[in-house]
Amino acid sequence: MDLLANIMLGFSVALTPENLMYGFFGCLLGTAIGVLPGIGPIATISLLLPATFALPPIGGLIMLAGIYYGSQYGGSTTAILVNMPGESSAVVTCVDGYQMARKGRAGAALTIAALGSFFAGTVATLVIAGLATPLADIAVRFGPAEYTSLMLLGLLASVVLASGSFLKALGMIFLGLLLGSVGTDVNSGMSRYTFSFFELAEGINFVPLAVGIFGITEILSNLERRHQETVSTQKVNRLWLSRKDLRQAAPAVGRGTIVGSILGLIPGGGILLSTFAAYAVEKKISAHPEEFGHGAIQGVAGPESANNAASQISFIPMLTLGIPPTASLAMMMWAMTIHGIQPGPLVMSANPQLFWGLVASMWVGNAILVVLNLPLIGLWVKLLQVPYRLLFPAILLFCGIGVYSVNNSAFDVFIATLLGGFGYVLRKLGCEPAPFILGFIIGPMLEQNLRRAMLISRGDPSIFIERPISAVLLSITAVMVLLLVVPAFRRTRQKAFQED
Amino acid sequence: MTRKNNDLIETRGWWSRGAGLLSGMALATAMAVMPASAQDYPDKTVTLVVPYNPGGATDTIGRIVADGLAKVWDQSVVVENKPGAGSNIGAAYVAHQPADGYTLLVATDPALVLNQWVYDDLPYKASDFDPVTHLINVHSILVVPPSLGVSTLEEFVDLMKKDGSKYNYGSPGVGDGSHIGMEWFKNEAGGFEMTHIPYTGMGPTVQGMLSGDIQALIVSVVTAQQHIEAGKMIPLAVSGSVRSPMLPDVPTFAEQGYPTIRLGFSAGLLAPAGTPLEVRTKIADAAREALSDPAFREKFVDGFGYEVVSSSPDEFAEFLKTESEVARKKVELAGAKKN
Lengths: 500, 339
Description:
heterodimer; A: 500 residues; mainly alpha; 22 helices; 73% helix; B: 339 residues; alpha/beta; D-Maltodextrin-Binding Protein, domain 2; 6-stranded mixed sheet; 5-stranded mixed sheet; globular
């Protein structure tokens, strides 16, 4: 059997003691740096990337895979422990993960994130090994019209992330859309809302925005109530999962894996969409949707599994078409080029040893990560017991370093500080950051693809219904809008969205 | 820990830089009045500023050159990424560094010639830099999808002159070399209609061609090669004076009657204005030595199709003078002016 032979070939490459060691060091370094609050996967990978250039190709790639997974998991760790997403795909994890941590269940959240990711990574590796070529043909059908419809659907679905008022969530999405329009207009090259700052020419960066709105805002709020209890003084319960946790989380991991495996195929935005699609699914089918936003374990298990499945699956469009889906994977792709794998349609046949070695090493990277991190969870959780007056200056310092290091730019540090204050005001007004940040990320993608689609159709909007995939996505969107305006649904929705 | 990435693989990075920083601060004031001595150069860490993110053509070139210079000089050379605003952030940073040869800009077309015509209000002027060396040229290729039914440049131009308004070409963004190059070619070919679809980055643009949304694209040879071999893209012409070693069957633009078309991009080193010629010549000589290394040639000249130029500061200045005038015309033609 071809599939089995290919996987065997891959593992014969990935499992030599030397390569295992590279994988281990990659994971260790990736986690160690990625776990610093404010230093997300992008900064971690760009920091460690040049270190792999000196290694032999396959060893370098395996170390990179380790760094990639380590930094991703490190990003989730900071999302859960200090409410700071390292990459856009960890935003959803903040919502319930951090609430779990505040209730003393950080250990459980970190454990399910690691185990869920491992399961999802295993499934996704098998999918890649078996179906990479046919799936790549599907990925390529996503043109501007399809993206526009998908982003519209995503925008609507992001309302689900709010656990408070519907109107405020809507307002936050629009605020995010507005902020996302800062930068250079794609079609004309004109500057929008940059106030003559060259630093804003490419828009506001995600990292300073996330660190400001999530991280710095969180610190400000914590300091405000420092005489009351804060995260760090919470008693930490057992680290391992209870039977009830497992019963709730296991199906969520499965569903998240399926959602991630499907959406991960869509280059550009698929990974991010998969995390909150998984969240929306969990919230919709849960018998207790009111628990979401207050530390529901499914709210961590689903999105984290979806994230990892999608990141893995997105290697398909990356490897077979040369289209990197995220900034961190773009750096991975470039590293492959340097190591002699030029991603493209021929990479599988031209370089089977490297290709399958890489696929196998992704799985090995996942496995090493679990082995490495399960014992470390106790240590991470202990960090929360450090008195907050000692902890917060350290967090703030790393935030500063992390924000600066993405572009080596002090301007970004100012932006983060400014947005931290802004986020504090929003919190005082009872507005939630997750819909805001999704509006910010989805807005530019929606605008660019809409305008691109209109250029291609010469201004004829029927392009959105003539293309089958786009038409289906739009129909789903229309049904969701209808459900929103139907009063009967409105009552259930209020039951589902309002705080108890 | 800032992202001076090379520290991780530099053997002598950490300590010497700590000391270098102190002496650097003391020296910086002295440098203003006293020209750097070319004999002693370099006696501390040299920084190459790459105005783009890690991972990408300019960053790779910067890192290769940094490693090469470090070997030639036995002195540490680090790469610092200062991305943003189409090279402008990094260029403005280098323009305001001391003119001692210890901070250099790894500049590609945008910083070398284009931006002065693209942007109304730049945070630096072309005269803020002194040329050091023209390192290499990276070549591009004009490709079309098989569904277009053309296989030569001539057929393509004929079809576009007849029916061009039906078709689109893509680019990674307004003002990118790929966009400006296509408008330049449209003009050189006697003018035809074809709608420009700007994407964000080359990845989505390539996807646009594979999904059939665009019917022509100017893209680097490295990126296109596999799609060409897989039959998903038809190559029409490569830039450069000779054919690409990676695609020896594809004729150049010049062979097909367009000798003026120069696509792809050049990469060179720029120093802050006032850097002594002896220092710049010393850097240019070291870069030439680094780029003639057999390992480099095997991987990047034979493998990626990079064309090594390695010019002297004076030759580079001459090149920039001509190219700058060509760039002004190209930017005007493409309507790529930003403000």
